[in-house]
Structure formats: structure tokens, C-alpha cells
Design a protein that fits this description.
Distance between the termini of chain A: 30 Å
Strand content of chain B: 25-35%
Radius of gyration of chain A: 31 Å
Strand content of chain A: 15-25%
Number of helices of chain B: 8
CATH class of the largest domain in chain B: Alpha Beta
CATH topology of the largest domain in chain A: FAD/NAD(P)-binding domain
Structural class of chain B: alpha/beta
Number of domains of chain B: 3
Largest interface: A-B, 92 and 85 residues
Oligomer: heterodimer
Shape of chain A: elongated
Helix content of chain B: 10-25%
Chain lengths: 759, 411
């Protein structure tokens, strides 16, 4: 707890012109927190070298352990208001939240001073109730576990080993190499991209792995279970336990099921084969029809529209929402919610062909080259609707176009039928509108890339929330991230997917992906070793602390943590795993007994801050009061930009930034209501399939909890409409002031004063 | 002497990612960015496909990570002048241009109000104006004004200086040149929109109501010249009929000899922008609609729009009628019918050209197209390497960080 505060009021950026900063400093020095305030001063420009020097001198002279800078937003001048790791800093945004955004209400003029005083008191309270976090430093296991000994996994292992880390590489098969070892050749892995083919060189990669003394290879084995947490994992492989720090999941893919290829004659026409089967043929050295003859023509079908009929990409909604917890296998008595084995629904569908579209095109172009090489007299046809070769691979496509032995036909395939030993493909919508029939001795249909995670949990986490990655439904089983900006971020800290288990990709990209995932794994180990969080609160030293004596084993925190950071014991008492935690505070928000808090962000701290808002006894004596709990990552910056753009809003709102709406505890709303606050706005990120919440589930969970809050308010006779959540993205700076004003207007005109006001 | 710090050239999404991923392992990183701000191209976008979310959302997290990590040093308005040495031991000379505004700036905006002269805004690709003392955009990072001394008279400069209450305007700023000793270099110099003026048959840069896809982004952005409204440049009217012309420069031996990866998805995204704002009829002229992998879902949802026509055909010419309406000549590849179709506005899906194309590459060798090739200790990331979307750019930046660390580890 900060006990010796310095409070500083800046006079710059219109603050001094609108507020009596000396009086404000005096208010802080002599006010209700006077016992904790050692110094309170104003300064014409607090961020100037003189202003900063003044604060530093005060820290030295008075031994301050906390500094409240009442100036601009914490997002501004962040580099100036830092005073070392022994002094806590709280920023009070008088500029953005008070002066620049001030809107005078003719009914109650002169609110600015009242706003400023509220915020100063809130700032002081927050610091008085805050401690410097002191993380426990675990003994970090620094070994990187790579699951999957294919091309991606081996590249990840080599990358990690090159930084000096020990690696355990687990491969299910008896030999290394994975799918790449079954391939004949590849399209180019790097420049020049117009080269017709490239040797993969998998044998050399295998040799490099085997020769590397940092890499321990275990073949013929899988990851049976992964218990613990980043930097402290216990991985069970072939019955033996290994200590590992973080994981790269490179378990790759399996070819899609033939049933989805039926409309193209696969399974019923003997000379229709899949691209995977064709690849195996080429690898064996000969392209043959079912009768063992070398074909005179081979047609590759790239257009999959016939296979996609009736497949819906539409908004997922509940249909593809994963179960909260995986159901136990039938017949097994679920004892205390635990069961021996889980049902893991197979997520494969025809949609995997769409996911694989880029590879389908590239592989057809590649395999057309095989025809040219292995059956030089044969013609190769490629029937495509959209040649899906974005980016630099256009050059590869172009090289095929220049080959007179490869006939590229734009068209949508209408039917595939057998005519003697030949196969006839009928296509429409070709160039210039003609319908064509292409007869070929052999027809190659696409192979869908289906991630191993579509049918198997793969990681076998020994986590309370189950053995698999959650949310895999979002990408039909691919262990992908829903973040555009942060492709390695998922809901399981310390495990980074790479290669085709994440997204269908060629070997060139897979090599890059392997390097990236290996770096993320190492970064996670090193962060845990320093006791700090990984993305998005990178470097955060705080960790939720539990007061277990008051815990009622309700399990809400363990269920709601988006990252599965909390396990529980047989009684249901949460077992924290600090290195899985991302410090969002969702557990803190979930807890009905309010036993979870961070050293520098807590339930009572925020509750106290809310209580610092001075509420007039009646609406007629100074207007309503509204608390706005806003996400510090998106809504808060939007408000900053709104203020900077000269927008203004009701003078009756008071903002409290939160780490994530997931951390909002119902008690804060209750505190506000019991104090006579007339309404609570919660500004958080968009949720649903295209969620923008940086902690995945925070805003969604808050919205769900809001229903309970509304219910309890209703029981107390308080209208539930007084508490509303709004989805605010960071670029809504021109809209959010209107949202605020409308909410205040609605509360004031339609609901009037909070019935608890004045109690 | 060898050195274990890393230089990242370019502070766009690839560069920021590379820098942070390396710094969070524990390495010291310098980001050298030519613009006055970080964020590069994504900062100029309204929304990303396929989530239709604002890029500033991810950038805010990146900037928080930078703020919290003393190992990342950001140098803006600076370019690499020269480079010597070998892997593990490079000496890089950096030239920083004058900003004329020092660290005392509070972004209060008084300098901006001191003069009324407006000039064309580079950030808006010429669609908007800015002052002589300016922020490029509201989300600028570092948030510090820039004075455009080249376009200001002496009187205006003095007015700007005198308006600043914080002594932050330094008209004597001469810029500076300094050396950095680093062990590895990530080249993340990104891309620039292909110059539409070179597309003479499409009226690029000449016909008023023919704009580029990046200009369209600026129109749709809430911080853009129209506050997010789609207006046609000639008269400010809301267009009722818009054409998007794909492969404007891309997949064309006379211009860019490759596909620019993002334009198909970007135009489909622009169809969504349009629909959110009006009921305008939209036609997209394409060669192939390239919506790879998980983007199929976005295409499927966008295609359902009854006022969208997708026409396979390469646009041959665009001219202007007497009312300034662009007229598009195109042969439908499926019917063979050649038509002249009148639109209110045309958006050229201009491709991406590596920023280094045509410039003497100060760091890293380039191929014939201008893309940067990896060297020993020098690694390309993002669109400097090849055309990519943002997701793959972030992946590429992370991989480049790994390679850079491998060069400096143990030094």
C-alpha cells in the first residue's frame, strides 16, 4: 500500500486556464486522504523537465512511495512519468476526462471543479490501495517440447536448438519426416518462385535434427498428457515424464475423407484419385491408371463448387459453439465432474476443402509438372474456377501457363462420369461461355488438409477445462488464432501451433511458421523465468491473489478463465497456475465472494474508487451521476481520441478504466448503486465470432454476468436498465460521446433518480 | 567488436512485430521508421478483413508493449544511410530528418491552430488536407506534432513557434546523423501502392472519379477526409454505382509481375464498407477472385449481397463522360460480350510495390521486383519480402526476429 503520496496538479494544456490548480492541490493535501499525502503541489507544466525534476526531488526528500500525476491521460507522456520500480504512479486524466471533454449543463454550471475533485480523490484512493507486485519466481524448465516430427516440427526444433535450448521432438510414426517425406517434390520454398519444382531435401533436415545434440528425438510416441503450466510442464511421452518449458504443436494434417469427394466420382470411378494418392504414385516413380497403364491425359480438378453445395459458411452462432465442457463418454459416471475419457467430436466437413483452396491450386500446378516429367507424352488439364495462387506464387502459375503441355481451363465442374476406361469431366461457365467435356485417363481430385486437432485433442492437457484447445470450432478444428495481429495467440499460454495444424500452408511458409512458433515458445519460457506475463500484458508482474479462507468452491473462476489458468482440487478450491495467467482479471470479476485481487488492481481498490464519487443527494441538487467502466485497451483510447478531437460529453459521468470487462465484479455495480449512482455504463470490446477482446472472452462474460446483475437489481427495486454494456471499438471516438450522452439522457428522463439515493 | 542488438528497418506491422518479439525475449532493438509515426500501412486502413475490426486495436496493444519495454528504442523520421560490417557486427549510419518539434510537445494543438494554410495530406493519399504543424492522424504514435518547414513561410513558422506554450517548437532543428552498432538487421520496409498514374488506360491519377483502393480506405476511415463518408471527389455526391477494378497493375508484365495478395479481399471488404453506408450498386471486375483458405467464409457472406455483381473480365479502358462519370470498357470473359458501363465512381485495386523498388537499397539486396532478399545477418520481413496479408506479415515478422536472434545469440 502506498503510504506516502505526492500529488501533483498540472496547469498545462488548458487545465490551469479552467481549474484553480493551487486550490486543487490544497484540496488533495487537506482532504480526506491528507494522512497519506506528504506533498501536494501544482506545476505549470508537469511534464516539463522542471516538473519532472520537482517530483524527483520530492521523492528523494520525502521518501514518497506513490505519485499521483493529475495531468493528461496515462497514454500520453508515459515516458516522463516513470519514477523507478519503488514508486507507484497513478495518472489522473484531468486533461481528457475533465477539461477537454467538458460540456456545460446550464442547469448546473461549473461542474468542472467537482469532476476534477472526484478524479483526484479516485486517483489517491487507487494508489493508497495498491501494492507493488512481487511475483514468485518459479524454477523454469527451459526445454522446448515440439510435438510432431514432420517438416514444420523439425524446423521448429532446429530453430530452438540454434538459440541454445534443449528440445524434445516427439513423432507419432517410427520415422521422422511426416507428410513432406511422402511427397515427391514441392513448389518453390523461396525465391525464385517461377521454378517449376523444388526438391524438398527432407533427408537433410532429418540428418540435421539427428546430428543436433540439443535435440532429443522420440519416435513412435505421442504426447500422452501435458500437466502443469508454462516453464513448469510435466509432459508424459511413452510412459515417461519430462520437464518442459513450452511447446510447439506441429502435429500437421491428415488427408480429408473420401466421402466428401463423392460428387466428383471418387470412390465410384476407379480412375479418379486424390491428390494425396497421386503424390504417392509420383513418389514411387510412376503415374499409372487403375489398369497399370501410363495415362495419355491427366485432369486435375481444382474447382470444388460441386463439393461445396449446401455447405454453409454462414454465421456460426450456437450451432458451432463448442461445449462448455467436453461431455463424458456415455455410460461413464461423471464423478465430481471428472470423467475417464471425453467425447471429442470430429470437426471434419467439406469446408476443409475451402480452407485448402490455395494448396489445391498450387498442388495441381505442381502435379501437372509431374505428368510432364513422368509421363512426357501425356497432356495435363487443370480445371479451375478461381486459380487460388495469391501473392508471389502467381509466378509459379505463370510458368505453368507457359507450358504447352499443360492445359488450364476455367470452368465449374458439373459432373464426372466414366466412359470406358476414361473419365469425362463436364464443365460449364468456361471462358466465352461454352460447355466442355474433357476426357482423361486419370482424374485427380483435391485432398483436403484436415488438421490433426479436428479429430483428436492432441495436446492432452491435464487442465480443469479439458484436454483440448477450446474454440477450435471457430476454424473447424484448425488450431488457429482468431487474432489478425497476433497469429500465435490462443487460449492456451505456452503452446504455439505451427504448420498445417494451424492453417493449410506450403513448406516455405511452414518453415517461417516454425521459426515464429519456436520463438514464441522461448519467449514464454523467458517471461515466466522473469515472473512476467506474456502477451498482451507483456511484462506485467502482477498476479491474482486468492484469499482461500473465504472461497466457497463455486468454481466460477476456474470455469470462466479464458486461458484455463485455474485448476481445482477435489473439493473445488482453485489451484492457480501463474504462468498460464494473462492477468486480465476475469477470475476477479467472476468471484461472488470477492476473494481474488491483484496487488495493484483489486476489488476493494476499485470499489473504494467508485465510492470517491460525490453523489448529490437529489437530481435537483447537482444532476445525476453515472459510472463508466471502460476497457483500457479500446474504449479508453477511443475516449482519449474523442477528447483530443474536441468532443465533449455529459459532466455527470466518471470513468474507471478496467483491464478487461471480464474483470468487472458485480460488487462494483452494487457499490455504485448503494451509493446513489444513477447508472453504470460498461464499455467493452465486440464479442461473438469476430471478437475483438484481447482476452478472448472478457466482454462476452461480462455481458453474460450482466443478466445476473440486472436480476439482482430488479429484486432490490432498481431498474435493470440502469446498467448497460456497450460494444465500443477503438475507432468509435466520434460515436462514443453520443452513446454516453444518450445513456445519461435516458436514465435522467426515463428513470429519474436511483431509488437508493440519499440513503 | 560484435554486438547483440538488433536493428529493425521499418516500423510498420512487420517491423513492430519483429522488434517486440525479439525484445520480449530480452534483446535490445532499434526501430528506425521513415514516417513520423509507427504503424505503417495498417495505420492508414479503416478496417481489416475478414473481421472488419480497426487496425488501431492491435496497434494499441503493440504500443503498450513498446511503452512497457525499455529494450525497444523508436527512432522516427529516419532512414538508413549506409551500412558496413558483417553479420554480428554491423555499423549502420542513420540520418534523422528534422521534425522541428521536441519531446516537450504535449500534442495540445495550439501550433496547428496558429496558421490557416492547408496542404495536401500524404497520410490521406491526397484525399485530404493537413496544417503546416500537424498530427498525421489521431492515433499517431509517438504522439508528437511535426512542422512542415518546407511548405511554411518564415512568418508562419514564427507563428507556429510562438503559439507553443511549452517551448516544443525548435526551428533550428537540423536533424542528425548517427551510427548504430548492431549484430543483425530485419528489413521491414513494407510496400507502397503502385503508382496509379502509370495505369494510363484506366485513367489513374487523371480522371477525378477514379480513385485507388487505399484512397477509398481513407474515405471510409472515421479519421479520414470525409469522416467516413463515401463521396465522389468531383462533386462530393454520394455514389450510387461503384466499380472496383481488380489487378490494377498487378498480374501484368508491364507493371507488377505478380499478384499483390490482398486486393481481392480488400475489394470485397470495400463492398462491405459500401453496404454499411449506402445501397449503392457495386460491380467488381476480376480475373480470379483470390480468397484463399479461411477467407472463403468472408467471400461467401459478401457474395450474398443482391446489389453486388462479380464480373470476370479484365478492364481494358476507363474514360470520362461529359458529366465526369467514369465509363468502364470491359469484356466479360464468360460471355465474350464487350460493354461500356457508366459508373459514378471507380476504385482501382492498385497493387503493392515494395517500398525499396527503384530506390538504392541501403539495407539488404533486392530482386528484380524490388523485394528484399535475406542475407547473412540481414532478414526480410513482411511485404518487403513478398506480398502478404496482415496475419502472415505478423508471422513473418516473428520468424525474422527468430533469425535475427540466431545471428546475435551468445555475442
Amino acid at each position: 500500500m502506498a503510504e506516502k503520496l505526492g500529488v501533483y496538479i498540472c496547469g498545462g494544456c488548458d487545465i490551469g486556464a479552467n481549474l484553480d490548480v493551487d486550490a486543487l492541490a490544497k484540496f488533495c493535501a487537506d482532504g480526506k486522504h491528507s494522512s497519506a499525502v506528504a506533498v501536494a503541489k501544482s506545476n505549470p507544466v508537469l511534464c516539463s523537465p522542471e516538473g519532472k525534476a520537482m517530483i524527483e526531488a520530492d521523492i528523494k526528500e520525502n521518501g514518497l512511495d506513490g505519485v499521483v500525476c493529475c495531468a493528461c491521460s496515462p497514454r500520453a507522456k508515459w515516458d516522463v512519468f516513470k519514477f523507478g520500480d519503488k514508486v507507484q504512479v497513478e495518472r489522473v486524466s484531468l486533461r481528457e476526462h475533465c477539461v477537454w471533454s467538458y460540456q456545460e449543463d446550464p442547469k448546473f454550471p461549473g461542474q468542472m471543479e467537482i469532476i476534477a475533485k472526484d478524479y483526484c480523490n479516485m486517483g489517491m484512493t487507487k494508489l493508497i490501495n495498491s501494492r507493488i507486485p512481487a511475483p514468485e519466481l518459479p524454477t523454469a524448465f527451459k526445454t522446448v517440447l515440439v510435438i510432431g516430427g514432420g517438416f514444420t516440427g523439425m524446423k521448429a526444433a532446429l530453430n530452438a536448438a540454434a538459440l541454445g535450448y534443449s528440445v524434445i521432438l516427439v513423432e507419432k510414426q517410427d520415422t521422422l519426416g511426416g507428410k513432406a517425406a511422402t511427397m515427391y517434390k514441392s513448389f518453390p520454398l523461396g525465391a525464385p518462385y517461377s521454378e517449376r519444382e523444388q526438391e524438398i531435401g527432407i533427408e537433410q533436415v532429418i540428418k540435421d535434427v539427428q546430428a543436433n545434440d540439443k535435440i532429443k528425438v522420440i519416435t513412435g510416441a505421442t504426447l500422452e498428457s501435458l500437466a502443469g503450466a508454462p516453464a513448469q510442464y510435466k509432459a508424459t511421452i511413452a510412459g515417461q515424464e519430462y520437464e518442459v518449458g513450452a511447446c510447439v504443436m506441429a502435429t500437421g494434417w491428415v488427408p480429408g475423407k473420401g466421402e466428401f469427394l463423392k460428387p466428383l466420382g471418387y470412390g465410384s470411378i476407379k480412375n479418379v484419385v486424390t491428390a494425396a494418392e497421386f503424390e504417392a504414385m509420383a513418389k514411387k516413380g510412376g503415374i499409372k491408371t487403375a489398369d497399370g497403364k501410363t495415362p495419355t491425359s491427366v485432369a486435375f480438378i481444382v474447382d470444388t463448387s460441386l463439393l461445396m453445395k449446401g455447405v454453409s459458411f454462414g454465421a456460426c452462432g450456437e450451432a458451432c459453439e463448442g461445449p462448455e465442457e467436453m461431455p463424458c463418454k456415455e455410460g461413464e459416471a461423471a464423478e465430481e465432474g471428472e470423467c475417464e475419457s471425453y467425447v471429442y467430436p470430429d470437426k471434419e466437413s467439406a469446408k476443409h476443402l475451402a480452407y485448402s483452396s490455395e494448396l489445391t491450386s498450387l498442388v495441381a500446378l505442381k502435379q501437372a509438372n509431374y505428368v510432364r516429367e513422368l509421363a512426357p507424352d501425356a497432356l495435363a488439364y487443370i480445371i479451375y474456377d478461381h486459380m487460388m495462387v495469391p501473392g508471389i506464387n502467381e509466378k509459379y502459375y505463370k510458368a505453368a501457363q507457359d507450358d504447352p503441355g499443360i492445359m488450364l481451363t476455367k470452368g465449374t465442374v458439373a459432373s464426372v462420369s466414366e466412359a470406358g476406361s476414361a473419365v469425362v469431366i463436364n464443365a460449364k461457365n468456361t471462358l466465352l461461355g461454352e460447355n466442355v467435356a474433357i476426357s482423361a485417363d486419370l482424374v485427380v481430385v483435391p485432398t483436403a488438409i484436415v488438421p490433426t486437432t479436428a479429430a483428436d485433442p492432441t495436446m492432452n492437457f491435464v487442465y480443469r477445462q479439458g484436454p483440448a484447445f477450446p474454440d477450435l470450432e471457430l476454424f473447424d478444428g484448425f488450431a488457429d488464432s482468431n487474432y489478425i495481429c497476433f497469429p500465435y495467440e490462443t487460449r492456451r499460454t505456452g503452446v504455439y501451433a505451427a504448420g498445417c495444424v494451424r492453417q493449410p500452408m506450403g513448406l516455405g511458409l511452414a518453415a517461417e511458421d516454425a521459426a515464429g512458433a519456436a520463438l514464441k515458445a522461448i519467449q514464454c519460457i523467458e517471461s515466466a523465468n522473469r515472473g512476467v506475463s506474456v502477451h498482451p500484458r507483456s511484462g506485467d508482474l502482477s498476479f491474482p491473489e486468492f484469499n482461500f479462507t473465504r472461497c466457497t468452491q463455486c468454481k466460477r473462476c476456474t470455469e470462466e478463465c479464458p486461458f484455463g489458468a485455474l485448476d481445482d482440487d477435489a473439493k473445488g478450491t482453485p489451484l492457480p497456475n501463474p504462468t498460464r495467467c494473462r492477468r486480465c482479471g476475469t477470475c476477479m470479476g467472476a468471484c461472488p465472494e470477492r476473494v481474488i485481487s491483484f496487488a495493484n488492481y483489486g476489488i476493494s481498490q476499485m470499489g473504494q474508487a467508485i465510492k470517491e464519487v460525490k453523489v448529490p443527494d437529489t437530481l435537483d441538487k447537482g444532476g445525476p451521476r453515472i459510472i463508466v467502466l471502460c476497457c483500457e485497451n479500446d474504449a479508453y483510447p477511443a475516449l482519449d481520441m474523442a477528447a483530443m478531437r474536441g468532443k465533449s460529453w455529459s459532466p455527470y459521468v466518471r470513468f474507471l478504466p478496467v483491464r478487461c470487462l471480464g474483470s468487472v465484479n458485480a460488487i462494483w455495480v452494487a457499490d455504485a448503486m448503494s451509493k446513489g449512482i444513477d447508472g453504470v455504463m460498461m464499455l467493452g470490446c465486440k464479442f461473438g465470432d469476430d471478437y475483438q477482446c484481447h482476452f478472448v472472452k472478457g466482454s462476452e462474460l461480462c455481458n453474460r454476468r450482466k443478466e445476473n446483475i440486472a436480476e439482482s437489481l430488479g429484486r432490490l427495486g432498481v431498474e435493470p436498465e440502469r446498467v448497460e454494456q456497450f460494444e465500443v471499438s477503438i475507432d468509435m471516438y466520434d460515436k462514443v460521446p453520443g452513446l454516453i450522452d444518450e445513456f445519461v439522457r435516458n436514465i435522467t428522463t426515463n428513470f429519474g433518480p436511483n431509488p437508493f439515493k440519499g440513503y | 567488436m560484435s554486438n547483440n542488438s538488433i536493428l529493425v528497418v521499418g516500423g510498420g506491422f512487420a517491423g513492430i512485430t519483429a522488434a517486440l518479439e525479439a525484445a520480449e525475449v530480452g534483446y535490445e532493438v532499434y526501430i528506425v521508421e521513415t514516417n513520423p509515426y509507427l504503424g505503417g500501412r495498417v495505420a492508414q486502413l479503416n478496417q481489416y478483413f475478414p473481421k472488419l475490426c480497426p487496425p488501431s486495436c492491435g496497434l494499441e496493444i503493440q504500443f503498450q508493449r513498446i511503452k512497457n519495454n525499455p529494450k525497444v528504442k523508436v527512432i522516427t523520421m529516419a532512414d538508413v544511410k549506409s551500412l558496413s560490417g558483417t553479420a554480428g557486427n554491423y555499423n549502420v549510419t542513420i540520418a534523422q530528418r528534422p521534425r522541428f518539434v521536441n519531446e516537450k510537445c504535449t500534442a495540445c494543438g495550439k501550433c496547428e491552430a496558429a496558421t490557416s494554410t492547408k496542404v495536401t495530406s500524404e497520410f490521406d493519399f491526397g484525399t485530404g488536407k493537413r496544417g503546416l504543424a500537424y498530427k498525421t492522424h489521431p492515433f499517431m504514435f509517438p504522439m508528437r506534432y511535426v512542422v512542415d518547414a518546407g511548405n511554411a513561410s518564415e512568418g508562419e513558422l514564427n507563428a507556429i513557434k510562438n503559439a507553443c506554450p511549452y517551448d516544443a517548437v525548435d526551428l533550428d532543428d537540423k536533424g542528425k546523423t548517427f551510427d548504430l552498432a548492431v549484430g543483425a538487421i530485419v528489413v521491414a520496409t513494407g510496400w507502397k501502392p503502385y503508382d496509379a498514374a502509370k495505369l494510363t488506360n484506366l485513367g489513374g491519377g487523371k480522371l477525378k472519379n477514379v480513385i485507388t483502393n487505399m484512397q477509398f480506405e481513407r474515405y471510409c476511415a472515421p479519421n479520414g477526409p470525409t469522416g467516413g463518408k463515401i463521396m465522389r471527389p468531383s462533386d462530393g455526391a454520394e455514389p450510387k454505382k461503384i466499380a472496383f477494378v481488380q489487378c490494377a497493375g498487378s498480374r501484368d508484365q508491364n507493371h507488377l509481375n505478380y499478384c499483390s495478395y490482398i486486393c481481392c479481399m480488400a475489394s470485397l471488404k470495400h463492398v462491405r464498407y459500401t453496404r454499411e453506408r449506402s445501397d449503392a450498386a457495386v460491380t467488381v471486375y476480376y480475373i480470379d477472385l483470390r480468397t484463399p483458405g479461411r477467407y472463403a467464409k468472408f467471400k461467401d457472406a459478401t457474395e450474398a449481397d443482391p446489389k453486388l455483381s462479380l464480373v470476370k473480365g479484365k478492364v481494358a479502358a476507363i474514360v470520362e463522360d461529359a458529366q465526369g462519370n467514369p465509363v468502364v470498357t470491359v469484356e466479360n470473359a464468360l460471355t465474350g460480350i464487350k460493354t461500356d458501363e457508366k459508373f459514378d465512381m471507380v476504385v482501382l485495386a492498385t497493387g503493392m510495390e515494395p517500398s525499396c523498388a527503384g530506390l538504392p537499397g541501403a539495407a539488404g539486396a533486392t530482386d528484380a521486383d524490388g523485394f528484399v532478399i535475406d542475407g547473412e545477418g540481414i532478414f526480410a520481413a513482411g511485404c518487403a519480402k513478398q506480398p502478404l496479408d496482415v496475419m502472415k506479415t505478423a508471422q513473418s515478422g516473428t520468424a525474422a526476429a527468430m533469425k535475427a536472434i540466431q545471428t546475435v545469440v551468445g555475442r
